[in-house]
Design brief:
- It contains 8 helices and 7 strands.
- It is an alpha/beta fold.
- It has a 7-stranded parallel β-sheet, with helices on both faces.
- Helix 4 runs parallel beside helix 5.
Amino acid sequence: MSSYIEKKFGLNGKVVIVSGASRGIGNSIASGLAKSGATVIGLGRTKISKKTDKFSFDYQPCDVSDSNKFELLCKEIFKKNNRIDGYIHVAGITNPNDDSLENFKNTININLTSTFSCCQTIGKIMMEKGSGSIVNITSIGSELGFPNNPSYGASKGGVRILSKSLALDFGSKNIRVNNIAPGYIHTDMTDKSFQDPKLSKERSNRTILNRWGVTEDIVGSAIFLISDASKYITGIDLFVDGGWTAKGL
């Protein structure tokens, strides 16, 4: 790797926290950042009894909806490393076909309220160093309407605007806040529709690239937004959707 590319995109020396890192998109992002040189602390609700190849980074059990525990853990990470350069919020849930008020409130709490709380906590810590990059994972559902899942769309739409608001609030402290908006990525969360031949083909056909995404497809965007290559980028939605939101006929 040339010194120029290393300087722009390299993550050596950076400390990054990734929530939702026990599986799926979060796990791929955390692993990719670690392979790119960052010191990565992955958080998740799953308790891991021993290290496996799945975790090429430091994994800490933490439910990010527990704001007090999250804050204590972030302060410990900052104290140990004397810095936190990046935070990627992946943690979230979806319960399609459940239009109950209880599900709506729970989804908003986990997907939106927890994102707000975590970003506020991380933002205050980053202010001590005067720089940082926060990346929130939204969805094409933050931009477009999808059936039978209003709670998820509302929560991700809220995160979309939350990030833009925080980008403005944190900008004077040289802290950037951006969104990555994935399309249909094959994970445990989407496996049911992926395994259904009709639904799977419908989703593939809706993209320009005519395929579902895999979790690895999100990693490059995360590396870019955490790296110095994106140091003049804040408040954006980076769609990683195979062309779903761009496609007409």
